[in-house]
Amino acid sequence: MPNTDTSQRIAWIEEIFAIRDKQDQAAFARLFAHFAPRIKGFLIRSGAADDMAEECAQEVLATVWRKAALFDPSRASAATWIFTIARNRQIDMIRRARRPEPEDLPWGPDAEPDQEDVIALSQETEKLGEAIAALPEKQRELIERAYFGDLSHSEIAEQTGLPLGTIKSRIRLALDRLRHSMR
């Protein structure tokens, strides 16, 4: 009796190839029906608002439709590929939400900050700079790319050739060290 998990994985690969090769709308509908609610749930569990999760899930599956040719089953399962797109899309949406639109930016001079706050911020900035400099080189390089270079983990993996898991582990370790140093 064939393994149903393996059969399902093969079926999703075939659906993506049908989308890639024939723009098969029925195959897309099956993928959408299966993955859209799962992506939405994944995003909500990751802290996304319901409406943002819904919009993001739709964008993810639209990306699957447009970029089916980029799917490589030797590198990842269909589900892993789709959820990686979802995670990256969520990061993009969060970044977009944090950047104010030009009409939302205040006009005119800002109020002068309190001198005590300026000194405290300067001291914290200096302490953070020292903590970053004290990190092992491999961790420091990834922190700089992620936070100063504004790159996603996937983009860092593409640039460095390191596995995504290695990048995530090193960044997590570096952030733990930085938190400890800033206490």
Key words describing this protein structure:
183 residues, single chain, elongated, mainly alpha, 8 helices
Protein model, in words:
With 183 residues, the chain is mainly α. The protein is built from 8 helices and no strands. The protein is elongated. The mean pLDDT is 84.
Write a brief caption for the model.
With 183 residues, this protein is an all-alpha fold. The protein has helices at 4-22, 25-45, 50-66, 78-98, 115-134, 137-148, 153-160, 164-182.
Number of helices in the DSSP assignment: 8
Gap between N and C termini: 57 Å
Largest sheet: none
Estimate the global geometry from the Cα principal axes. Answer: elongated
Helix-strand pattern, N to C? HHHHHHHH
Beta-strand segment tally = 0
Radius of gyration over alpha carbons?
21 Å
Structural class by secondary-structure content: mainly alpha
Residue stretches low in confidence (pLDDT < 50, at least 5 long) are none
Q: What is the percentage of strand-forming residues?
A: under 5%
**Residue-averaged pLDDT:** 84
Helix content: over 70%
